[in-house]
Amino acid sequence: MPENENRQWVLKSRPDGMPTEADFELIDSPMPSPEYGQVLIKSLWNSMDPYMRGRITSSPIGGVIESEAVGRVMESRLEGISAGDIVRGRIGWQEYGLLDVTSANPVNPDYGPISTSIGVLGMPGLTAYFGLLDVCEPKPGDTVVVSSASGAVGAVVGQIAKIGGCRVIGIAGSDEKVSYVVDELGFDAGINYKVENVSEALGVVAPDGVDCYFDNVGGPITEAVMEHLAMYSRTVICGRISEYNESEPSMGPRILRYVHSTRSRIQGFTVNQYPAQFEDGRAQLARWVKSGEIKYKEDIIEGFENCPKAFIGQLRGANFGKLLIKVSDE
Ligand SMILES: NC(=O)c1ccc[n+]([C@@H]2O[C@H](COP(=O)([O-])OP(=O)(O)OC[C@H]3O[C@@H](n4cnc5c(N)ncnc54)[C@H](OP(=O)(O)O)[C@@H]3O)[C@@H](O)[C@H]2O)c1
Hints:
This protein has 330 residues and is an alpha/beta fold. It has helices at 52-58, 123-136, 154-163, 175-184, 198-205, 219-226, 256-262, 278-291, 307-316, and strands at residues 5-11, 24-30, 38-47, 69-76, 86-89, 96-100, 105-106, 143-147, 167-172, 189-192, 210-215, 229-237, 265-268, 298-302, 322-326.
């Protein structure tokens, strides 16, 4: 690639339903140059996250696809950050990007490999941490169910719940994913929603009902879990990936009968509610990762050119663990 070029993936057409690779276009742009107060970073790892499906519903045609990345500072005109530092920020799907004092987040290399700053120690890990502990409020002995259980968020949810003395059931889309959460992460049971009837399976593995439901998916899986809510249960609506490609929600208020009769609480949640506590959460997650109490799995796709393919795969369940694009060698 010539020195002055910056490859970018831009939105070519707005997807109707599941995106296709033709909705994205790879273009060459001039290398950005930092102004006073900015840093130029070279992306090393780009984060693929399901929320990006929602963003491309409203982002401009021709605009760079939004996402978070972690990279190396190539040039700094920002006090406190030097060339060579590792920073995290929302530069999107491009090889080089500019960040400023509000958007450049220095990465603490003592916490672990830098890719973890956008995974288990980044937004997905913090989502699990605050969504479970602050919204679901699990108590020792509670039965906790998590959907998309082997994913970046779900795997951490289940492991924190285990640390807290809960009984944990993971719902995922393959036998391999279910084996991973049970055999490697220590969940008490798993359900493969592609081959099992989720409601029937829950009746067997959660006979006393579900005290906490960490909902990453919405749709029929969530309706099945609702039938098993325990009295005074707590559900956090964290994600609705089963609905992200739908223009109209497919479900009506059928689950509310269960919420009513069990006097349960359902609360919407986004991780952005907790900015003041991010560093405390990150430090705790890093301690758990260091002690081995939290394990993590990364699904690494090599090559910036593969961004759309990887992202579409994630929406279909092809990823197994935190999905990352390796843009460049560290
Ligand atoms: N509220 C917040 O602040 C916040 C922050 C981060 C993430 N989230 C949400 O949390 C959820 C998980 O995110 P993540 O980063 O951990 O992604 P992820 O779980 O690593 O990847 C997405 C997974 O979703 C599952 N999936 C796809 N389509 C599905 C469907 N129709 N029904 C059920 N499962 C389906 C697939 O796993 P299977 O093979 O198991 O189906 C896929 O691998 C997403 O909904 C995301 O939007 C919310």
